[in-house]
Amino acid sequence: ERLMLWHHAFVTDIGGTPAADNSAWADTRIAHGHVTLWETPDGAPVSMAGRTPMVAGQTRVAPVHTPAHLRGRGYAGAATVEVSRAAPAAGAAEVLLFEDLANPTSNGLYQRIGYRPMADFAVYDFGAVSGDVPPVREGA
Question: Containing H/E element for 62?
């Protein structure tokens, strides 16, 4: 249940449209060992980091989420490091992480733990209804 709530919050935070039911996402990540919960010493979950299934030797770290009231304590960084270390042990030749260029906090964190910018890109949604302006997302 916590993973479903946190995934919903993550999708909302990045401006996406959350699925009505996140249970399939959570079930799949748990079944394949593709999600890590970071816990405090007393066992309270405080952050999550996941990874996608491997394709052509690559896996992507996603999503990374810490509830707003728990941010700024290093939990997301610790969870991201753990998921990033586990990916090569599971056979990944490359570990990717897409980031929002407008978020200097997470950009700085990911660079401190070893990720390097490779490319910038933009995503355009051409499925907009007449008169609507399609959203543009930028990331690296």
Answer: strand 58-65
Within 10 A of 137 (CB to CB), how many other CB atoms are there?
16
We report the CATH number of the domain holding residue 46 as 3.40.630.30
Structure confidence at residue 75 as a pLDDT band (50, 70, 90): very high
Residue range(s) defining the domain that contains residue 24:
2-139
Q: Measured between alpha carbons, how far apart are the two ends of the chain, in Å?
A: 30
Contacts 24+ apart (CB under 8 A), 77-80: 77/109, 77/112, 77/113, 78/38, 78/47, 79/36, 79/37, 79/38, 79/47, 79/48, 79/49, 80/49, 80/109, 80/110, 80/113
As for how many domains the chain has, the answer is: 1
- In sequence order, the 6+-apart residues with CB closer than 8 A to the CB of 52 are 34, 59, 60, 62
Q: Which residue has the higher pLDDT, 137 or 75?
A: 75
